[in-house]
Structure formats: C-alpha cells, structure tokens
Specification:
alpha/beta; Rossmann fold; SIR2/SIRT2 'Small Domain'; 2 domains; 6-stranded parallel β-sheet; 3-stranded antiparallel β-sheet; 9 strands; binds nicotinamide-adenine-dinucleotide
C-alpha cells in the first residue's frame, strides 16, 4: 500500500487518533522488547519488570535502571515523534495514545498524550504515595552501587511510575478509552505506529474504531483487522507523509 493512500485515508476523518509503541522510538536508539535485539532477549521481564519481582527484590530493577531507564531518559525524539508533534500542534490529529514510557512524544512537541503504561519521569513511594522523586536523580544515585531509593516519610520503596507486568492500568488508560468513546460518536480512524499489538488490554483499543491503519516494520496481531498496512520504518514513512501533506497544502 502507498503512503499517499494512507495520508488521503486518515485525513478523511476529522481528528485521527494515533496509537504508538516501542517501534516509534527505536530510531531514537531505544530498543523495543520483541523485535530482534530487543530487551527481552537479554532480560527475563518476569524476574525484573513484574509487580511480583519488584515487591520481592526491587534491587533487580534498580540494577538495570541505568541501562534501561538511563538510556531512555537521555534519548532524543526522532522524525516520527517530530512529525506527530507538529501535526498535533497544527490540530490535524487528535490524541496520541502511547504504550511508551520514554516521554519522547512530548519532547517532539506533542501536548495531548495518554501514557497508558506510565512514564519514567518520576518514581513514587509504593507504600504511602507521598514522596515523588525525579528518576534522573535516582539513576545518578546508582553510580555508587545499587541503591533501592526509599521514601523519606515512611521508608517505603520508591517505584518508577511505569506499569510493571501484573500492575493495574493507570488513569491515563481510562482517559484514553473515554476519549475514544467520545470521538467514536462519529466514524473515526486510529493509526497504529510501531507496535506489535501483542500487549493487552491496549491491543483491543483499536477495535473500537471504524478504521484501523498500521505502520510497522513487521506483522502485528491485528493485521487482519487493518484497512491499510504499511511495512517500513516509522520515521521514514511519517516523514514521507509529512512532505506529501505540505505539497498538498501548497508548501505550508
Ligand atoms: P513491541 O516491542 O512489542 O513491538 C514493537 C514493534 O515495532 C515490533 O513489531 C517491531 O518490529 C516494530 N518496529 C521496531 N522498530 C520499528 C521502526 N523503526 N519502524 C516501524 N516499526 C518498528 O512493542 P509494543 O507493542 O510497544 O509493546 C511492548 C511494551 O514495551 C509496551 O508496553 C511498552 O510500554 C514497552 N516498551 C517501551 C519502550 C519505550 O518507551 N520506548 C521501549 C521498549 C518497550
């Protein structure tokens, strides 16, 4: 399928929804989980990134915090984030619902983002919820050896504000679903970018839309439900679409 068809198709709808996953950020140097070379090839997620693991041995997560969270915090937005950010500023797309925790949509100029798996800007006390600390500071503290950060008030362990396997979904997930319900009052489209759509419950989110289109460099679990699928790199394809849109719009 062509990028020209995709751009004509998504802008048939008033405010296309965007749903992104780890594949939108690989061009920023953050590995995805399931692609080749992905994180899961080296780290057993259930041993490190599950709610159970964090409860019983939080030091395992903090052992990997510099490698995983440090790299993510230092990453810069790529063409895909920048294009989506600009489209949102121009009000030609609706909300961006992201499974990513990396803050890169906001760094790329987006202001309306639902982070359905949380974010790594901060960590919060898992016992009293009062202490909130910057993740940058926590990672810096790890330079002298693994430190499990604790709440100054109650001594509870600080947990990064991301969803671990087995955690409940955060408020942003409920807001994203609610917003989709409102938008879906009229036929609406969702464009998925860089996700295998293997993670539930968010992988059923696209099914509430009239139309699903996908940009991904590998098959996804919802390919059979999609109207348009473009197999390729997110940054390259979104940039092509952006240039086309500017051409259609007389260079503006
Ligand atoms: P996933 O790893 O399951 O799927 C990513 C998909 O993107 C794969 O199909 C891969 O082939 C494709 N892909 C990789 N690079 C691409 C590119 N440049 N262009 C187009 N496609 C590309 O990721 P997911 O569906 O988001 O689910 C995994 C979970 O991992 C999510 O919950 C997310 O929170 C978390 N995660 C987040 C980050 C991040 O914040 N950047 C990184 C890794 C994992």
């Amino acid at each position: 399928m062509s990028t020209e068809l995709l751009i004509k198709q998504i802008f048939l709808y008033p405010r296309p929804f965007i749903l992104t996953g780890a594949g939108v950020s690989t061009e920023s140097g953050i590995p995805d989980f399931r692609g080749s070379g992905g994180l899961w090839e080296r780290i057993d997620p259930m041993e490190v990134f599950s709610a159970w693991a964090f409860k019983h041995h939080p030091e395992k997560l903090y052992q990997h915090s510099k490698e995983v969270f440090g790299t993510i915090l230092e990453a810069l937005p790529n063409a895909a984030h920048n294009v989506l950010g600009e489209w949102q500023q121009k009000r030609i797309i609706g909300p961006i619902v992201t499974q990513n925790i990396d803050n890169l949509h906001q760094k790329g100029g987006a202001f309306w983002v639902y982070e359905v798996h949380g974010h790594i800007r901060t960590a919060t006390c898992s016992r009293c919820g009062k202490t909130v600390q910057d993740m940058q500071e926590i990672i810096k503290e790890q330079e002298t050896g693994v430190v499990v950060p604790r709440c100054a008030d109650c001594g509870g362990v600080l947990k990064p504000d991301v969803i671990l396997f087995g955690d409940a979904m955060p408020e942003d997930y409920m807001y994203a679903v609610k917003m989709a319900e409102i938008f879906n009052h009229f036929p609406q489209v969702v464009l998925v970018v860089g996700s295998s759509l293997a993670v539930s419950p968010i992988n059923s989110f696209p099914l509430s839309f009239e139309e699903l289109d996908i940009i991904n460099n590998a098959p996804t679990l919802l390919d059979q439900e999609a109207y348009i699928i473009i197999n390729g790199l997110a940054g390259k394809i979104l940039m092509e679409m952006h240039k086309m849109l500017i051409d259609f719009n007389g260079g503006k």
